[in-house]
Each structure stands twice: as structure tokens, then as C-alpha cells.
Amino acid sequence: MWKAIRRWWKYLGAKLSGKLEESADPKVQLEQAIEEAQQQHRRLTEQAANVIANQKQTQMRLERAVEEYEKSNASARQALLLADEANRDGKSDKVTSYTQAAEAFADKIIGLEKQVADLKNQLQQTTQAAEQAKQAVAQNSAALQKKLTERQKLLSQLDQAKMQEQATRSNAAWRRRRACPTSPRPTSTPRCSRSSRRRPAPRLRRVSPSCAPSSG
Fold it and tell me: Does residue 111 fall inside a structural domain?
């Protein structure tokens, strides 16, 4: 189970690296990484739950085996005591019966001892796997939280960049308007009417001296 978790963890890292190389948009990159991390978190959580459930089942089986071992051990001792008492009383039939019972409990105890040893070994392995699964979930949860924090930070930066871009465009437009003011339209020269046109002055006729009137 732990090997599968490790494979998934390596697969997530490789796939996230590939996704980040495919797209140039940092927002798209981050969203893809978050989606992968969320899916991986669900998988790891389910796997960890299965490992922990297996650990608890092994623990319960071990407890039952230990309890049965202790009961069988006590029953074997009781059978031996009864066989010894019957032997002192001269009850040979009882001695045989109790002795056979003690032997049966002894055989059962041998099997239970092996079962308890195997379950202890399994419990150790499942406990280790459960701890590793918990660590994997915790690591992935921390990575996911980091991605969410990065997304929030990136969104804030994108908003600031958009506002800065808008401000830059507005300033550029204002500079252009200031550098190139609107020129007033030229006014057309009014044409003069015929009546207001200036007529040339009449020419004066020269008078010869002989025609001039004589002074008194």
C-alpha cells in the first residue's frame, strides 16, 4: 500500500512538471497544479483511510488471539490440576480425561502462539504503513495549501497588473492629447459683394492752357 502511495506521489510531481511546461499562463499553470493536488489529496486520503482501517483490524485480531491464548493457557493449567487431583484420588478415568483435555489445550496454545507472533509482525507493518500514509496526506495537504496561497497571491498580482496597465494607458492617452492639442478650424474669408467692391477713381481730363478761362 505504501509503495502505491509513493508511486502516486512521484506521478503527481512528474505530471505537475509536465503541466507547468505546457502552458505559459501562470494562472492556468497554478490552477492545473491545484486541481492535480486536490485529486491527489483525495486519493491519498482514501488510501490512508484503508491503511488505517487495516491497522485497526489487525490490532483487533491480535487482541482476540491474545485473549484466546490466555484463556487456553488457563484452561490447560486447570486441566492439569484436575488430572493431578484425580490421580491423588485414584480416579484413573478422570486422570485420562483431564490429561487429554490438557493436551488439546496445549496444541491449541502452540497454534495461538504462532498466530499471535504473525499478527504482531503484521501490526508492526500496518502501523508503519499507517504512519507513512498520514505523513503523505500531511505533506500533500501542506503542498495544496501552499498552492492555494500562491493562487491568491497571483490573483492579487494580476489585479494590480491590470490596474497598472489601465493607469498606464490613461496616462499615455493624456500625454498624447497634451502633446497634440486640437487646432482651431480656419475661418473662411468672406467674399465681398458686388456693391461693396471698390470702383476705380475716374481719370481727370487735362485742360490745355488756351482753353483755360482768363483771369479778369
Answer: yes
Quote the number of domains for the chain.
Answer: 1
54-104: per-residue pLDDT in tens?
999 999 999 999 999 999 999 999 999 999 998 888 888 888 999 999 999
Q: What is the 3-state secondary structure (H, E, C) of the chain?
A: CHHHHHHHHHHHHHHHHHHHHHCCCHHHHHHHHHHHHHHHHHHHHHHHHHHHHHHHHHHHHHHHHHHHHHHHHHHHHHHHHHHHHHHHHCCHHHHHHHHHHHHHHHHHHHHHHHHHHHHHHHHHHHHHHHHHHHHHHHHHHHHHHHHHHHHHHHHHHHHHHHHHHHHHHHHHHHHHHHHCCCCCCCCCCCCCCHHHCCCCCCCCCCCCHHHCCCCC
Q: What is the CATH number of the domain that holds 40?
A: 1.10.287
15 in a structural domain: yes
101 falls within a domain: yes
pTM given for the model: 0.53
Q: Does a structural domain hold residue 105? A: yes
